Amino acid sequence: MPGPVQSIERAAAILRLLAASSGRLGVGEIAASLGLARGTAHGILRTLERVGFVEQDGGSGKYQLGAALLHLGTSYLDVNELRSRAINWADALASRSGEAVRIGTLLDGKVLVVHHVFRPDDTLQAMDVGSLLPMHATALGKALLAHDANAAASIRDTVLESYCRRTITDPRELARAATRVRENGWAAEIEELSIGEAGVAAPIRGHGGLVVGAIGISGAVERVCDARRVPEPRLVAFVRDAARAVSRDLGGSRW
């Protein structure tokens, strides 16, 4: 097996040093603390600066952790808190609805599935954790899209892929669907991603009412919808109840 990469170890040491510092550090201070040549420390810092992991103060020339690294850490904590707070409610939702449950959050214009509870029966099912789903063709995605202006803007000028005959590919129609989601408090998909499949989802809110994720069910159209292909009210109520419960646990007390 190949050994450790020294430059990465040194970069990690610099990041840890900056994280532990009560203020900014200069190149000389970093080099002395880690036993590095000044030129070596400077080269690593310049690389870290280019990728946004450290920032240099224009006045003092000293360094601190950068916004990109802080965002990575916050995203990790947010996803893990969302998942840990939602696990019990997701299990309960699967039991009440009899359908598979997924929890998702936005990542690079897609829906990242961070938790998945199988449908409580003996059928063969595949784990979806880590999957990236399209925003415009899923209930989870529309629940998130309706409450995130940046997400909506990110796909406004893109070609929306068609997965089934009912997939929404017109941006104006998608905008109208997002409005309905905000008005109703929940989103639906009916044979928009997969033929024969339907889903219902509701947004999960954190502190201040910010939407941080969505929880939803998915299953066969004939189980999720009535004869008019409208989601069953009791299933919608189950999903909304679960979303409110997770939101309360995350500090979204109004919901």
Automatic annotation (TrEMBL):
This protein's UniProt keywords: DNA-binding, Glycerol metabolism, Transcription, Transcription regulation
Annotated HTH iclR-type domain ranges read 5-67
Q: Name one GO molecular function term.
A: DNA-binding transcription factor activity
- The IclR-ED domain sits at 68-252
- Write down the superkingdom of origin: Bacteria
Q: Which GO terms describe its biological process?
A: glycerol metabolic process; negative regulation of DNA-templated transcription
Query: What's this protein's function?
Result: May be an activator protein for the gylABX operon.
Give the protein's recorded name.
Glycerol operon regulatory protein
The species this protein was found in: Actinomadura soli
Classification of source organism: Bacteria, Bacillati, Actinomycetota, Actinomycetes, Streptosporangiales
